[in-house]
Amino acid sequence: PVKTAAGTKGGIERTFIAIKPDGVQRGLVAEVINRFERKGYKLVGIKAIVPSKELAEEHYGDLKARPFYKGLVNYMTSGRAPVIAMVWEGPDVIRQGRRIIGATNPLDAEPGSIRGDYTISVGRNAIHGSDSFESATIEIGLWFKPTEVFDWKFTHEEWIISAN
Ligand code: IDP
Ligand code: MG
Q1: Nearest ligand, measured from the Cα of 139
Q2: Fewest Cβ atoms closer than 10 Å to its Cβ: which of 38, 72, 153, 164?
Q3: Which of 32, 76, 122 to mutate to test the pocket of ligand 1 (most atoms within 8 A of CB)?
Q4: Catalytic positions, please?
């Protein structure tokens, strides 16, 4: 396939997707992976991790001033279930990933999206996805070492991504 620059429409991108502890408790790991996999996106990194307070605080650094920030960090770091951290790759995967996930508040999320189908509460919305090329780059770097992200090709890539 032609490699359009990441961050431009149709470009091959990588995004950070994380199943939050409530999503793991709810048994949604396979369901989330299936929705990205069946679309044609490529899993290039995955691990279970209980994030440190520092990692969770940095990940959600832009929300520091919000009243729910402390609860959000506690929810991510409690260890009552790990976070399933993933990197997914493919054309427009950052924006498409947000569509697959659905709106932040599950009550606004479309049926057919993960949050729309499985969740009710904004404080228990099961999944995270990077919201821009910039945040995807930062978040992948925060959660993954370079050696934990893999360059690989589908043997049938030409049947998923056309050159034009
Ligand atoms: P996003 O996850 O859709 O990108 P953000 O606005 O970046 O949404 O918020 C990050 C996370 O913070 C949300 O997914 C949710 O878990 C939590 N959050 C956002 N707003 C609220 C709220 O009003 N109450 C409780 N938690 C919230
Ligand atoms: Mg966000």
Answers
A1: 2
A2: 164
A3: 122
A4: 128
- As given in the structure block, the two tokens for residue 63 are 């929300």
100-114 pLDDT, tens digit per residue, is 999 999 999 999 999
CB 96 within 8 A of CB 158: no
* SS3 at position 96: helix
**Rounded Cα gap, residues 75 and 89, in angstroms:** 27
Q: Is the ipTM of this complex over 0.85?
A: yes
| Residues with CB in 5 Å of ion ligand 2 | 131
